[in-house]
Amino acid sequence: MATYDNLTLHTDKYQINMMYAHWIHGTTDNKAVFEVFFRKLPFGNGYAVFAGLQRIVEYVRSLSFNEEVIEYLREQEEDYAPAFLEKLQSFRFTGNLCSVEEGTIVFPNEPLIRVEASVFEAQLLETAILNFMNFQTLIATKASRIRQVAPKDILMEFGTRRAQEADAAIWGARAAYIAGFDSTSNMRAGMLFGIPTKGTHAHAWVQDHDSEEEAFFRYAAALPNQVTLLVDTYDTLKSGVPHAIKVAKAMEAQGKRMSGIRLDSGDLAYLSKTARAMLDEAGLPYVKIVASNDLDENIIFNLKAQDCQIDSWGVGTQLITAADQPALGGVYKLVAREKDGEYVPVIKISGNPEKVTTPGLKEVYRLMNRRNGMAEADYIVLSGDTEALEGRKLKLFDKLHPYLYKYVEDYEAVPLLKPIFIGGEQVYELPELDQIRAYHAKQLKMFWPEYLRKLNPAAYLVDLSPQAWQLKMDLIHANKM
Ligand SMILES: Nc1ncnc2c1ncn2[C@@H]1O[C@H](COP(=O)(O)OP(=O)(O)OP(=O)(O)O)[C@@H](O)[C@H]1O
Ligand SMILES: O=P(O)(O)OC[C@H]1O[C@H](OP(=O)(O)OP(=O)(O)O)[C@H](O)[C@@H]1O
Ligand SMILES: O=C(O)c1cccnc1
């Protein structure tokens, strides 16, 4: 079997076909600029949480058309000339790549990643970059919604068994941690990324004993420092909770404290309230209640509205598969190409106005109100336009109804796109995961709650500068049949 972890061919065949066609026509070295953005927020949310950059950086660094890959291409496609395959052998990314940092709050229709490279290199990267960014951003956004409804509780990611295969499990666990989950059950994700791991036990442990009581006592004897007992194998209130109380009391006699019980079926509001009362009655107020069973942000929100007594949530399937919206539709679009040694902006026209691209190399700034430190709007300008950076008064206007406008001043323009690779050299030091998580938590504080609420959030303003807008209009008119 072929080597498994070389991601160089983790791309759509049409990218290699286009690379080949450029090679045939001698245009491989022409520069091209692509931008990554998405058009629509997932889950009806008001923002997305950008994630995927670490994987993208590792992928770009590791690109290598080694012998095995070349051999495969040779066998697969007789059109690919031997000299083309030879050129691929020395392929490496030598361009510039800028990106928003992981954990950043982002919005539709703003550039999140910009690749500026020979068209030969830039074309190859599209598929993998979108694959990594779309999935990880989607899961981080879902996790952020879950965190929002349980701001003070412990959130445990339990999704691996239901994830869309192994990569999704570990990178999804990482994305969830960035957006505020406290732990993962996936030990490999823990080892690879330094995410704290947590786990209870399964029904099998109870079923594998002559009695539930015996199972509980033996588990507590084996792992006295992390005893969370699953109490719903036979009858939660008549058997599970009373047996757990017995174990907790026995532990107390030895000077130890049981951590918790886990509810995994039935009416979680009713069961948690009753179990809480039973535990308190037994003098065990410190024993926490963990819940799991196909939870998502809506069920957790509802359970809280029912005054559930749940301290900690295990969330699997709904999070790791983003069950209510299985994909983020991020795209990678050409915005400029080199012609006669200069960049020429390009556009994609569509009958669907949302699909018309915004031409030209762009920067995106977050306009931070200096008086209150809150984000006012995101402002997209053509690269080289420094008006916002100089703090000049800006006109933000509604593109469909230009007579609706407002001026902003007394702001700081914070560039969102950071240089990651310049001339193929990595210039960005990847932050530690905990730094990313802390950065994300700080980001959330910069937005008014109206933009963050889970249901019907207010739309945050992402505006094009007048020059960027004019360029778009000019190209639409120039290209319209
Ligand atoms: N009080 C509640 N309010 C709203 N939703 C709840 C409540 N209690 C449980 N749920 C959710 O209802 C859904 C349906 O649970 P379901 O009836 O399938 O579980 P169960 O039959 O009790 O357990 P299982 O089939 O997993 O053994 C689950 O997603 C669960 O999290
Ligand atoms: O429900 P999720 O959010 O996906 O969380 C993970 C689930 O995985 C385990 O169940 P298991 O796989 O044993 O099957 P179950 O569906 O019968 O509980 C655990 O008991 C949770 O219920
Ligand atoms: O630790 C747990 O309780 C757990 C882990 C994964 C899936 N379900 C439960």
Automatic annotation (TrEMBL):
One Gene Ontology biological process: NAD+ biosynthetic process via the salvage pathway
Signal peptide from the UniProt entry:
none
Spell out the coiled coil positions from the record: none
Boundaries of every Nicotinate phosphoribosyltransferase C-terminal domain copy: 362-472
Q: Which InterPro entries match?
A: Aldolase_TIM, N/Namide_PRibTrfase, NAPRTase_C, NAPRTase_N, Nic_PRibTrfase-Fam, Nic_PRibTrfase_pncB, Nicotinate_pribotase-like_C
Entry PTM: Transiently phosphorylated on a His residue during the reaction cycle. Phosphorylation strongly increases the affinity for substrates and increases the rate of nicotinate D-ribonucleotide production. Dephosphorylation regenerates the low-affinity form of the enzyme, leading to product release.
A Gene Ontology cellular-component term: cytosol
Q: Which reaction does it catalyse?
A: 5-phospho-alpha-D-ribose 1-diphosphate + nicotinate + ATP + H2O = nicotinate beta-D-ribonucleotide + ADP + phosphate + diphosphate
Q: NCBIfam families of this UniProt entry?
A: NAPRTase_put, PRK09243.1-1, PRK09243.1-2, PRK12484.1
Keywords recorded for this protein, A-Z: Glycosyltransferase, Ligase, Phosphoprotein, Pyridine nucleotide biosynthesis, Transferase
The residue ranges of the Nicotinate phosphoribosyltransferase N-terminal domain are 9-134
Role played:
Catalyzes the first step in the biosynthesis of NAD from nicotinic acid, the ATP-dependent synthesis of beta-nicotinate D-ribonucleotide from nicotinate and 5-phospho-D-ribose 1-phosphate.
**Family, similarity comment:** Belongs to the NAPRTase family.
Name of protein = Nicotinate phosphoribosyltransferase
* PANTHER family reported in the protein's UniProt record: NICOTINATE PHOSPHORIBOSYLTRANSFERASE
